[in-house]
Fold these 2 entries.
Entry 1:
Amino acid sequence: MTAVTVRLPDADATRAYGRALAGVLRAGDLVVLTGDLGAGKTTLTQGIGAGLRVRGQVASPTFIIAREHPPVAREDGSTGPTLVHVDAYRLGSLEEVDALDLDASLDEAVTVVEWGEGWVESLAQDRLEVTLQRPRGGALSDDLDDAAAGERVVTVRAVGARWVDVALPDADPVAG
């Protein structure tokens, strides 16, 4: 098991780290995000979506539960995987998780599940477990400038054989 912890000064750095993380993701990968409200789970997923080059605005799927973002064609005509973005916050049972039928698209997509800890680990033996914390300024705010500010501490833990030889991004994604 490999783990990397990075400190990210703000939302822009969190998105940049998500883009860097997307560089090691491929179809079939499961990413489980854990963190308090306002910790940056959706912000990190926005970066992953940008790094995967997917269509549509990556926003919190809280009331929709799951959103699928198909890939955009690259200049050479190739495409990456679809991003399936799930918010398990409102789910109350394993039956509700099963009803999402996430395993049907798991092989063809990168699946990112916010609030997924304890709910989706059975979907894949190989996964990334990402914990986001905001030691200060972590409370939700109506002030967008305040919501974007504030350090996040992100710990990425690789679980399973898929990740044995994969170097997780650990450098400051904003710096050179």
Entry 2:
Amino acid sequence: MFDLGMAEMLVVGVVALIVVGPKDLPVMFRRVGQFVGKAKGMAREFSSAMNDAADQSGVREVTTGLNKSLKAATNPIGTAMDGVKDAAKSLTDIDPESETGKLSAKRAEDVKRIQAGTARAAADRKAREATEAMEKAEELEATLQESLAQKKADT
């Protein structure tokens, strides 16, 4: 609002402390806060009243149309993409009894089959890796047992 930084606020606070005094400073800040709150409330009420008046007179519909026109003029590619998105949304509503709907259902079924096959292959791979790891662990344990037995025999 006033674009006051921390340094400016600190200077205002020190000057207020010197001019008003430490005893009356909290009372003054409370009153300033109440005044600012009332001013914000009045501004909010004024803005609300102006918006209501604009709604009643139909100005808002005109400004909405103008905003769309300005958007289209300033960003034609974005507006064209909005049109493409709207058209794509209408294409997703497919009649299940049409040829396209049947093809879509078949493709969805194929996707599920592919996902199931991929999951099964991953599970098989993990099981194979687990058995290989178990065999490796058993070999290492056997080697360890042999070396411990040989150490006992040497001593």
